[in-house]
Amino acid sequence: MGRSKIKYMTLAQMFDESLSCYGDLPLQYFYDQDGKVTNLTFTEVGFIVKDLTAGLMSLGINKGERAAIMSYNCPQWLWVDFSIINTGAVSVPVYPSSSVQEMKHLVNDSCSKFLFVQDQEGIDKVLKGLEKMPTVEKIIVMDNIPVPEHPRFISLDQLRTIGRKYLVSHPYAYEKRWHAIKLWDWSTIIYTSGTTGKAKGVVHTHQSIIAANCLDLRNFATNGFDLLPGQDVCLSFLPLSHSFERQCGMFMAIHNGVAIAYARKPSTIVQDIFTFKPTIFMSVPRIFERVFVTVREIAGSTPEGAEKFEKAMDIGRRVVDARADENGFVDMGFDVDFTEGLPAELKKEYLWADKNVFSRVRGLLGGRYRLSFSASASLSAELCKSFMAMGIRIVEGYGLTETCNTVNLNNLRKVLPGSIGPVQSGVEGRIAEDGEWLVRADNVFLEYFNNPEATTEAFTKDGFFKTGDIVEMLPDGYLKVVDRKKSIMVLDTGKNVPRAKVENNFTTSRYIEQLCAIGDDKRFIAALVVPKFEFFIQYFKDQQIDFDESQLQFLGEEAERICVEVGQDFINHPLIRELINNEICAANENLETFEQIKHFEIVNRRFLDSMDEVTPTLKLKHRNVLKNFENLINKIYGE
């Protein structure tokens, strides 16, 4: 494919060209209502989108008006998104986990005229807030379930039927509408997750999104990585409401003839990988951390297995170090022989490790895995090297909702663990005096919706977007993110401590599930620690250690069932404190004296999205965690 797809066009034109080029190829793989895998081709999806677009036109949607989508990942998400976009209207994703209050804010702030909801949970949420969403004229239910007997509710099938009838009396209305869209027209408003403040509506145009696709394609062409129509399958499990999965996953797949396979839910990813055998997926560091910990736990289920895994990992890391150049760069190209140039003894050891451990780990990825992309937060260098050691390619990049993702991206031929890669072709970047990364590019957003003050504040006088991230320059123009500017803790001594530098030491911890560092305006760094409840529950049972099981609280069912809260007797057990203390002491060895955790408190519940403490991409909302645990924090500092 090379560079033939690198050109600017509206998303509607991109969709139409892909239908013409890849019409007979599969676009969507998913489970039907009976749990069986089925698929739709580009052509079949094209007919659905055309009908739904015409249905919206019949209901009176106009160019530039907004329509919101509140749904988990599913095939209908794509159909609805492009039916909105192809009318010239603007789609507004709403996280399905949003509270009624959050949903109302996003719908009202964006003045959405239509609201698509997926399921009964979404219907119930809408019914609770409907009277306070005055701009919403119709709610369209995406799943094939009963629709409330309410004049503002219709089903997706009804919308499609309306569209078919409209097309009979209005031939070429669909083509005329999407052909009238211009590159500079708005395409979507994506609300930020609000980790450091109130969510803002990020306005992207057709140009800013297609420019993001072009940036990625240029990187692929440079590194000899082609997306393969009819062969590549992208597993979709990160929220489509987030720009990362939507642009890097969905839009790129459509643009390049790649099929999308929809995971049933995040907890079924392992089974979905076996089912769909994906070649590519987008993920975030927290998922990679869990994958590594799970693999280590499976391998270490017996003392012999644990010893074999640790031995293999030691060998693999030595191979990565041996293959790295003097600056730490590693060639992870698809044609690379990992053993080429190694000393004979190390080569022999690696072949043993690959046969007995690494090949089995790669098998867990379905047998067709090519690579994955990591973003949204920093992937630790050690974790990156661990996957490299197993022959698993992860390409880390950097971007924000405001940049429609890619600004920096590692080169597959030259990966630097712990970095976000160099600035990409098509992006101008510079580091401000205080270390903030500033960028200017076609993929940068237009404005914050209805918020001119925030828009002005987001840019320098000469048009560079202030990312809010402090970066450090590495060899060959590669960058490392130190932390969010607003997340750097300032001790009362004036010392600056990047919160991420402290917390990232625990990404693959055996005993710590979550850790929130504290220190702003304080004498020393402290931490709130959530233990791995499931590990200790099982350990206590195996060792016949008594604890009050009536205090355990769980969320989810079957494979999704996780412990979210335990009793005070549980977290007060000396063994838990000893093991966590040992891990914190080990982490402190990697930190400057003033950065070290001097005190920690173990908390008896997880940090939860239901408490607005975690984003949909699993990042901590530190501001809310600190607020919710204010009394405990005051106790730590004797306040």
Please explain how this structure is put together.
- The chain is an alpha/beta fold.
- Strands 2-1-11-10-12-13-14-15 form an eight-stranded mixed β-sheet, sandwiched between helices.
- α1 packs across α9 (243-256) and α8 (206-222) crosses α9.
- The longest helix is centred in the middle third of the chain and has 21 residues, at 303-323.
Q: For the terminal residues, how far apart are their CA atoms?
A: 63 Å
Share of residues in strands: 15-25%
Poorly predicted parts: none
What would you call the shape? globular
Instruction: Name the helicity range.
Output: 25-40%
Radius of gyration: 25 Å
Largest sheet: 8 strands, mixed
Give the number of DSSP strands.
27
Structural class: alpha/beta
Order the strands across the largest sheet as they lie in space. Answer: 2-1-11-10-12-13-14-15
Number of contiguous helices: 21
Average per-residue pLDDT, rounded, comes to 94
Per-chain topology:
Layout: H1 11-22, E1 26-31, E2 37-41, H2 42-58, E3 66-70, H3 75-85, E4 90-94, H4 100-109, E5 112-117, H5 120-129, E6 138-141, E7 153-155, H6 156-169, H7 173-179, E8 186-191, E9 201-205, H8 206-222, E10 233-236, H9 243-256, E11 259-262, H10 269-276, E12 280-283, H11 285-299, H12 303-323, H13 344-363, E13 371-374, H14 381-389, E14 394-400, E15 405-409, E16 427-431, E17 436-441, E18 447-448, H15 452-457, E19 465-473, E20 479-484, E21 488-490, E22 496-498, H16 499-503, E23 512-518, E24 525-531, H17 533-542, E25 553-555, E26 562-565, H18 568-571, H19 574-588, E27 597-602, H20 622-628, H21 630-636
Parallel strand pairs: 1-11, 3-4, 3-5, 5-6, 6-7, 10-11, 10-12, 12-13, 13-14, 24-27
Antiparallel strand pairs: 1-2, 8-9, 9-18, 14-15, 16-17, 17-19, 19-20, 21-22, 23-24, 25-26
Helix pairs in contact: 1-9, 2-3, 2-6, 4-5, 8-9, 11-12, 12-13, 12-14
